[in-house]
């Protein structure tokens, strides 16, 4: 199933690039799948991680398509990880923070891997681009992006605090957005 998910995601994301870069988009879902594979051996969860952006970002990919191609469970995990792009940035990000507080463990796992991959990109590019980096995002204010990543950290802390992926995520949030003393109490 994992090999099929890699092939499906590769085809679905063909021609897409990471925001503001020339890096093929597929590197992100592959990294998310790799991170999730450090947290579980469950092929459905790993497959959902690989497919996590297909409903949100790929034309013609729906929950029903994923259920037919993979399984109902994979489709549900991907659907829960998908944002409603018709909403504003603040609405979407506030919903994601709240959703990940109480979402099923598998959805939270994929969410952690997704956000860790994203913050790794920020950490790689920020020293090179400086403040110009924030212009690649819909929300161009560093402090608001920091608010989002800190909020996610608090939503994911319970259940993942001892995981290496969470510790790396937390470190990179502090490194790139500054230490928020209230989150360490």
From TrEMBL:
The keyword Hydrolase applies. One of its GO terms (molecular function) is guanosine-3',5'-bis(diphosphate) 3'-diphosphatase activity. Keywords: Hydrolase. Signal peptide: none annotated. Pfam families: HD_4. It comes from the Bacteria. InterPro entries: HD/PDEase_dom, HD_domain, MESH1. SMART domains: HDc (SM00471). Residues 25-119 form the HD domain. This is Bifunctional (P)ppGpp synthetase/guanosine-3',5'-bis(Diphosphate) 3'-pyrophosphohydrolase. It comes from Dorea formicigenerans.
């Amino acid at each position: 199933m994992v090999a099929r998910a890699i092939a499906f995601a590769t085809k679905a994301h063909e021609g897409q690039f990471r925001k503001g870069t020339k890096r093929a988009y597929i590197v992100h879902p592959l990294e998310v799948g790799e991170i999730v594979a450090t947290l579980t051996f469950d092929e459905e969860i790993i497959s959902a991680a690989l497919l996590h952006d297909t409903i949100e970002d790929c034309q013609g990919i729906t929950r029903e398509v994923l259920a037919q191609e993979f399984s109902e469970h994979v489709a549900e995990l991907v659907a829960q990880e998908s944002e409603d792009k018709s909403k504003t940035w603040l609405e979407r990000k506030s919903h994601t923070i709240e959703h990940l507080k109480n979402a099923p463990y598998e959805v939270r796992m994929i969410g952690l891997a997704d956000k860790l991959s994203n913050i790794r990109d920020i950490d790689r590019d920020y020293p090179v681009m400086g403040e110009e980096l924030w212009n690649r995002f819909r929300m161009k204010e560093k402090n608001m992006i920091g608010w989002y990543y800190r909020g996610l950290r608090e939503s994911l802390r319970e259940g993942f605090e001892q995981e290496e992926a969470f510790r790396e995520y937390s470190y990179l949030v502090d490194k790139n957005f500054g230490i928020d003393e209230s989150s360490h109490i």
